[in-house]
Amino acid sequence: xxxxxxxxxxxxxxxxxxxxxxVAAGKGSFDDNFSKSCPETHFKTSEDGQIWYLSLDKQAGxxxxxxxxxxxxxxxxxxxxxxxxxxxxxxxxxxxxxDGAGPERDELDIEFLGNRTGQPYLIQTNVYKNGTGNRExxxxxxxxxxxxxxxxxxxxxxxxxxxxVDRVPVRVYKNANYTNNFYPNEKPMYLFSSIWNADDWATxxxxxKTDWKKAPFVSSYKDFNVDGCQWxxxxxxxxxxxxxxxxxxYNAWHLxxxxxxxxxxxxxxxxxxxxxxxxQRFPKLPEECWLSPWD
Length: 295
Ligand SMILES: *[C@@H]1O[C@H](CO)[C@@H](O)[C@H](O)[C@H]1NC(C)=O
Ligand SMILES: *[C@@H]1O[C@H](CO)[C@@H](O)[C@H](O)[C@H]1NC(C)=O
Ligand SMILES: *[C@@H]1O[C@H](CO)[C@@H](O)[C@H](O)[C@H]1NC(C)=O
Ligand SMILES: *[C@@H]1O[C@H](CO)[C@@H](O)[C@H](O)[C@H]1NC(C)=O
Hints:
By secondary structure, this protein is mainly β. It has helices spanning 2-12, 30-33, 257-269, and strands spanning 34-37, 43-45, 52-56, 62-66, 70-80, 89-96, 107-113, 122-128, 137-140, 150-156, 160-165, 168-174, 190-197, 217-230, 271-274. It has one domain (2-290): Jelly Rolls, CATH 2.60.120.
């Protein structure tokens, strides 16, 4: 995904067209907060500018990124994924400290892995620190994400990273808080989304190939919402000094009782893959696997 975004960014950055200026007053327009990197033909908005459509065909994909970087906060957006036969197509929605696959990047990933008609989508999440990832989890969803918009959110503070689907916590990643532990908390991140072809690995391990006769593949976005700290130089910006930042405060350092119930249900029913249980791949499990999501 980063690779695609990078090459598109390098070659295909297109100036914003006047359409984006026609948005309803007050709600803000795409280019207030985002830049895109795709051919004009691959990015469209609804007439009022509030829904965005990214498309993928054999020639190109499409991606966008926030203009601002953030360090800690609540990051949320509604997505509706490519319907029908979308095997091989991946819609990525992620935060990253760089707009490329740099060797020192931090990243928080949600990837939606397309499937053949009628077969379920999976979501894959991952955490990178300083260029290293390998922290994958995969979950089933409890609805068809191609039929309607659903909310996908990330809570990020110095204590935990929580991935939410419709406000249900599906993954909790804790900070062990010792020097150089595997927890991205120093580098501010942009928020990105992109749609790309990953039929070399995504669907059933790459067995299912993208059917280009079904192109273009389109994913839709609306209601971007950030409640967080916009990064400003110099470091250390975004060190919380107020109690106004709920996402940084004690109650956001761990799941609430209601969230724990939801999370227990997810853990019982929806987990397909958890790197912390993959002792074949990791004879010695990464250390953060010993941290409890319940604390
Ligand atoms: C979006 O852009 C507006 C205008 O530049 C800015 O005031 C606002 O803080 C931005 N919002 C976010 C969430 O970055
Ligand atoms: C981050 O990664 C780079 C490149 O792999 C390495 O040179 C550097 O020492 C790492 N930094 C830390 C703090 O681990
Ligand atoms: C991490 O440990 C340091 C030193 O003990 C402490 O000051 C800091 O508040 C801790 N941070 C978190 C996120 O627990
Ligand atoms: C696609 O559907 C198949 C069959 O139900 C399933 O095994 C697989 O996990 C699904 N998702 C992906 C990304 O392969």
